[in-house]
Amino acid sequence: MSLKKKLAVSTLAVSMAAASVAGFPFSSEGLAKHLTGVASAAAVDHNAVKTKIKAIYSNLTATEVTYLQNYSKEVAGIDQAKFEEIFAPVLGKLQLNSEDKATSLKLFKSVSSVVYDVYANDFDVLKNIRYDVNNVKLFNNIAAKAKVDSLSFDDILDFFFATNGVEAELRALLGSKSTADMINLIGNPESQKTLVKDAVYKVLEHKTGVGALTVSDAVYNLGITADDLVKTFDNVNTQIKSAKPAAQALALAYIRTYPLVSGGGTGGTGGGTTVTTPVATPGVYDVSALVSIVNGKATLKLVDADVLKAFDALLAANPGKTGLTLTLNLGTVNATTVEVPLSKAIIEAAKAKGIANIAVTFNGLTVTIPVGQFSEAVTLTVTTEADTTVTSITSLKLASKVYSFDLTVGGVATTTFKQPLTIKLPLVGAASLDKELLSVSKIVYGKLQFQGGVVDGDFIVEPRDTFSSYAVVENKVSFSDTASVQAWAGRQIQVVAAKGAIEGIGSGKFAPKSNVTRAEFAKMLIRALNLENSTATESFSDVSSTAWYAPYVAVAAEKGIITGRNSSTFDPNATITRAEMATMISRAVKALKPAATTDATALSKFSDAAKISASLKDGVAFAASNNLVIGNAGKFNPNATATRAEAAVIIYRTMNFK
């Protein structure tokens, strides 16, 4: 068996174990979507679906069949206390009553027995599970808690096995691994868990916009994290002794039926390791041979003419395209300080040829420099500092190395930029941390300022309009007064606060039910979406240049996200309504994602849509279309003042909009 397939068995087995909780692969609709890519089982011949189920089971060996039977029998003997212990990470967030918990145990036992029953060609058990009155009631209750329109058995299957579900993400992640990565992962269970966690994390992002998954939407509304789900999967594998062999048996049968090949696709018959010859990518210029190290300082010595040739190769490979980036790949650099000079000739040539950015990457770190704002030689210097730079001033867990960034333009130190430079920092030791709470932190006078950032696999990306020293930390924030909104806003408040987009009011309090002012929401939105720009200006007579909110209002006004009450006043201390908040969110999202669309019928689900001001209807419709805002009991309450808890929830959804 190839390395890729061996690893696939290990990682898919975790997914299969979780799926056994959801009854893999035993909903005709869910299976139809999973195996055929057809949107609805109604369009698929039912017998064909059964044939595909049987195809997987026909690839089970006699020994593997006994593993399924053992799993079914062991689960049948689990009592309520053991069940609640195994599923504690999720049940703790669901807050089910005793009746629903009892139904959950029965459902778990039923779907676990299905793992063997369907092998025995008993398809009737499916119907009993899917249409059981108590099961339907349980899903409806969870849907109500999660504030989603509905939740079904098939929604859970989609979460694991849709084209953007856990299994698909695992295949994609596996397809990108090198042979060396495979060898490491096969022998490292913790790395395997990280891989599965990354797949779940990516799936949890599919909660708004195109390809939204109902379970992902419900999960984030309930405050359930990727860590909670992966911990539950791990509990199933460790506390139910027969689960791991059964999961691996299903995974092996799956791989035999639908082989994994390089790139994460399906097809092929397996055998030796599939090797893909690397292809030189136009736009990535290997400059590792041009790095010299003296006394712990590495310096890149570029040849201008060669860089210009790299520009030309990039342009030739991308005719007619704009916004191109040339990446200078320094490879692995064993030096504390790395200096990258870009001559004036290189800067001017990039601008003349229409190259938007020059990126510098080494040791997993990448800095992307928009060159259009410069007209002189630029030198980037990155110094790796001691971890104690951060650990000596905070007890928060460090999740990266500590980096100091410096830039000179024409030989003059420059710390602020008209166009933000983007830093992509490699994460370190993040597998055991809550990735949603990771934040790029700026070190200022011995204190941390939390800047946010977007986690991208094993990296975090953050545009910066100023340079300083930065590191990534797990910013666990807690407030003493959020219990009353914990069920629907607790997790969102925690995440948005971790990113530095919203703050408490002091003394460990958040004031979740207090109103939000226009100035406060401008700051929340600009910080959350990483739109800060220290060079932005505004001309409102009631916004002092020294006011704490002035830079955020300036950016929001400059980008058309927010408008004044008139041409000269902003009214920063006025409370913001739900409709105004939705409109600001919509303008910001459209500015970042112009392809996002509006459903013209979105407002029809609100019985009070007529109360929405004409100038705000488009914004509310866009926000409602993309699940950025939802109503309550069929109403939107457009003119009600927004609370801080509501603002945190809508900011959280906007941060996660894809």
Can you summarize this structure?
By secondary structure, the chain is of the alpha+beta class. The chain contains 25 helices and 17 strands.
Share of β-strand residues = 15-25%
Counting DSSP E segments of at least 2 residues, the number of strands comes to 17
**What share of residues is helical?**
40-55%
**Gap between N and C termini:** 37 Å
Question: So what's the overall shape?
Answer: globular
Radius of gyration: 27 Å
Uncertain segments are: 1-46, 261-280
The helix count comes to 25
Overview of the molecule:
By secondary structure, this protein is an alpha+beta fold. 44% of the residues lie in helices and 15% in strands. The chain has 25 helices and 17 strands. The strands form two sheets. Strands 2, 3, 5, 8, 9, 10, 11, 13, 14 and 17 form a ten-stranded mixed sheet that branches. Strands 1-4-6-7-12-16-15 form a seven-stranded mixed sheet. A hairpin with a 2-residue loop joins strand 15 (454-456) and strand 16. Helix 17 runs parallel beside helix 18 (344-353) and helix 20 (486-498) packs across helix 25. The longest helix is centred in the N-terminal third of the chain and has 20 residues, at 3-22. It is globular and about 75 Å long. The model is unreliable at 1-46 and 261-280 (pLDDT under 50).
Summarize the topology:
Elements: H1 3-22, H2 28-36, H3 46-58, H4 62-76, H5 80-86, H6 88-94, H7 98-117, H8 124-130, H9 133-146, H10 153-161, H11 166-175, H12 179-186, H13 189-204, H14 214-222, H15 226-239, H16 243-257, E1 284-286, E2 291-294, E3 297-300, H17 304-317, E4 324-331, E5 337-342, H18 344-353, E6 355-362, E7 365-370, E8 378-385, H19 388-391, E9 397-398, E10 402-409, E11 412-413, E12 416-426, E13 438-444, E14 447-452, E15 454-456, E16 459-466, E17 469-474, H20 486-498, H21 518-528, H22 550-558, H23 578-592, H24 617-625, H25 644-655
Parallel strand pairs: 1-4, 3-5, 4-6
Antiparallel strand pairs: 2-3, 5-8, 6-7, 7-12, 8-10, 9-17, 10-11, 10-17, 12-16, 13-14, 13-17, 15-16
Helix pairs in contact: 1-10, 1-11, 1-12, 1-13, 1-15, 1-16, 2-3, 2-10, 3-16, 4-7, 4-16, 7-9, 9-14, 11-13, 13-15, 17-18, 20-25, 21-22, 21-25, 23-24, 23-25
